[in-house]
Amino acid sequence: MRHQPRATGYNHCVDSAKIAIIGGGNMGRALLGGLLRDGTPRGQVRIGEASGAARHELHREFGVFVSDDNAAVLEGAAIAVIAVKPQDAEAVLVPLGARLREQQSLVVSVAAGIEVRSLQAWCGTPVAVVRAMPNRPALVGAGVTALYAPAGIAVAQRALAEHVMRAVGAVVWLADESALDVVTALSGSGPAYFFLLAEQMMAAAVLLGLEPAAARTLAVETLHGAGMLAHAGDGDLARLRAGVTSKGGTTEAALQVLDGAQGIGPLVQRALAAAADRSRELAARFAAKGHG
Q1: Strand segments (E) across the chain
Q2: Mind listing the pLDDT tens digit for each residue in 46-79?
Q3: pTM higher than 0.85 for the full model?
Q4: Do residues 228 and 221 make contact, with C-beta atoms less than 8 angstroms apart?
Q5: CATH number of the domain at 12-180, out of 2.60.120.260, 3.40.30.10, 3.40.50.720, 3.20.20.70?
Q6: How far apart are CA 20 and CA 45, in angstroms?
Q7: CATH class assigned to 189-258
Q8: What is the CB-side half-sphere exposure of residue 231 using CA atoms within 13 A?
Q9: Residues 163-212 pLDDT 10s
């Protein structure tokens, strides 16, 4: 598990801000755990969750205030992280609009596909809204989150959003909201691409005579180690690949097959384009149902 250092420039107000997390599912739980590991006091974070069993488990594991009353969770919060399913976002936000406006709370939404204009409409003007797109490795503190803030979001509010999302990994800011569809295709869906490759590598090794248990361990640990090397380096992926590829060696032989006549590049481009297109379709479906 890795933790990102906080960016410079955070002030005491950001560090001491009260945080409300609405939704105690996987992402809400990941954010709560990450914040506490980073040193956020338990009394500074509250979480709202509809399920009684989930509330009991959250309180038992983390020792924070947990309630099914989202208004009580939101009381005094400088930031409200909306970590519910996209189809539930409107029903959650509309009743909280008056309190959000009164407290001037920042809303950070991790609900995929819900545009800023819809979130603002449900909260009511002049609530400040930031969209966040974390990925699944956030569950183990190794995620990456893309953030988008529309015009008018103050520097301090951006810092607050970044402070919270860095609890589960790295952060990247986007200048254009539409770029979140590409983020979905790259980092959102991306872990599955690496899992598929590792899965196929394992299966091929078994066909070549390796024991399944050994093949699985080797594939999983290779995936893990390659990620660590990439993260520890300077981001030059081509140089890292070249460092493993000796002229006339085994790696070169394999890469010549993978990057054959058609080339792996066009295949990856088509795959990411398909995912980005699907992300746009899903966002449009919310808008067609009145979500925007």
Answers
A1: 19-22, 45-48, 65-67, 79-82, 106-109, 128-133, 143-148, 169-174
A2: 999 999 999 999 999 999 999 999 999 999 999 9
A3: yes
A4: no
A5: 3.40.50.720
A6: 6
A7: mainly alpha
A8: 15
A9: 999 999 999 999 999 999 999 999 999 999 999 999 999 999 999 999 99
Q: Is the dihedral of CA 86, 92, 97, 101 positive or negative?
A: negative
Distance CA 4, CA 220 (A): 23
Q: Rounded to an integer, what distance in angstroms lies between the CA atom of residue 287 and that of residue 282?
A: 9
**Distance between CA atoms of residues 69 and 61, nearest Å:** 20
3: nearest Cα among 37, 40, 27: 37
Report the distance separating Cα 256 and Cα 217, nearest Å: 25
- Enumerate residues 6+ apart whose C-beta is below 8 A from 206: 212, 215
